[in-house]
Amino acid sequence: MNRPRTLLAVAALCCLPFSITTKSAECVDGTTAAKSVDLSGDWQASQFGAQTLSLRPDGSGDLKIRLGTMAAMSYGRNLTLQLTWRLEGNLLTQNVVGGFPERSVLKLTQKFGATHVYRVLDQTSQCLTVEDVATGKTCEWNSVSSDSNSL
Question: What is the reported pLDDT for 28?
Answer without folding.
Answer: 53
